[in-house]
Write a structure and sequence with these properties.
The complex is a heterodimer of chains A (about 230) and B (about 130). Chain A has about 230 residues and is an alpha/beta fold. Chain A is about 35% helix and about 25% strand. Chain A has a six-stranded mixed sheet with strand order 5-6-7-3-8-9, sandwiched between helices. Chain B folds into two domains: about 10-75, Arc Repressor Mutant, subunit A (Orthogonal Bundle), CATH 1.10.10.10; about 80-115. Classes of the chains: A alpha/beta (about 230), B mainly alpha (about 130).
């Protein structure tokens, strides 16, 4: 059963079409890159999957259910902007997540905070932008979810932290769960991905496995992306 | 073990080659138990399914084998490991010769350059002149 499935999904904002007739499915155990230039519809797609937007037409399902209360319990979402309460300390945020999500693994979150030397007693407001992003990613990845939707998880952090985040994603790999990573930092995430979905101007232009691309085209996904989306 | 990846070849193929090098050089000794797919994937920074695929191929070739509960092991067949070593060497040599062809060297020139480089006497008298 597909973890995430879109059938003829269309989303319009007034006269602007953000997604048009998008169909694809993502199976459990896959780590998928949602790749496309700015304004291609990546964030719209992720927001639809979270029920923050509703489709204009077509359908999107998570484990066969429309986004809603039941799917929020199995989807762990990292928004593109920091959305955690700034007045909390890191510890309070963990309390909050523990109250909110049954699948929250507090020990995993504490271990990651310690590993990145993030003081548990510090208020999130007092943290740098990069640290805030790390904290939010930590709580997101600490849930034992069925679907992780990560909107630009590595955009705002330094390369060393990027590596740590990616190894966290690999280390948390669960054959029952799927991970969707939206990004344009392709060369950084390429090795971590099973497959990629190229999206451009609201259309899916390619869904393929990373090694299929390398085998058939003899180039990396990053190189192919530059070719397909050449300005 | 340090892992390196190039842009052009499939990642699973690069993993296979590097694991083979690990086996040939004794980083993964014969008969020894291999780390789990997840641990190796984390170490190499690659997708666990890709690592799994690499091992499936190595298993098919007989270089590693699984035991249902105990995990995955390197073969104890030293002749096979020696064969793998030769195979890897042939790969390097083929690549090297291709590069030399590209630069416009004839085979005998290549050989004399090799002699020179390894500090031995050239087999042709004009070893240095080109």
């Amino acid at each position: 059963m597909a973890v995430l499935e879109c059938k003829n999904l269309t989303k319009q904002y007034g006269h602007v079409t953000a997604l048009e007739d998008v169909s694809f499915s993502i199976e459990p155990g896959r780590i998928v890159g949602l790749l496309g230039p700015n304004g291609s519809g990546k964030t719209t797609l992720i927001k639809l999957a979270n029920g923050l937007l509703t489709p204009t037409s077509g359908e999107l399902t998570i484990c066969n259910a429309a986004p809603g209360k039941e799917t929020h319990a199995i989807v762990s979402y990292l928004p593109e902007r920091t959305s955690i309460p700034l007045w909390m300390t890191a510890t309070q945020l963990l309390d909050f997540y523990q109250d909110f999500y049954k699948d929250f693994r507090r020990d995993a979150a504490e271990e990651m905070l310690a590993h990145l030397n993030i003081p548990a007693k510090q208020r999130i407001k007092q943290m740098s932008k990069g640290t805030r992003e790390k904290v939010q990613l930590i709580v997101t990845m600490s849930r034992a979810a069925q679907l992780y939707l990560l909107d630009e998880p590595i955009g705002g952090v330094d390369p060393a932290t990027r590596d740590y985040i990616l190894s966290t994603i690999i280390g948390n790999y669960n054959p029952e769960a799927a991970v969707v990573i939206s990004t344009h930092l392709i060369s950084d995430v390429e090795k971590v991905l099973d497959e990629v979905i190229f999206i451009n101007q609201g259309h899916v232009v390619l869904q393929s496995s990373v090694d299929e691309i390398r085998e058939e085209k003899g180039m990396s996904v990053d190189a192919l992306f530059r070719e397909v989306f050449k300005c | 073990m340090k892992w390196y990846f190039s842009d052009s070849a499939p990642i699973y193929a690069q993993l296979i080659r590097q694991i083979k090098v690990g086996i040939v050089t004794g980083a993964f000794p014969p008969g020894e138990r291999l780390p789990s797919v997840r641990d190796l994937a984390t170490e190499a920074g690659v997708n666990p399914n890709t690592m799994q695929r690499a091992f499936a191929e190595l298993e098919r070739d007989g270089l590693v084998y699984s035991q249902r509960t105990a995990g995955r092991f390197v073969t104890e067949d030293r002749a096979m490991i020696e064969q793998t070593k030769k195979g890897l060497a042939e790969c390097h040599i083929k690549q090297f010769l291709e590069s030399m062809d590209q630069l416009g060297f004839q085979r005998d020139e290549v050989i004399s350059l090799l002699w020179q480089e390894t500090g031995k006497e050239g087999i042709t008298d004009g070893g240095s002149g080109m």
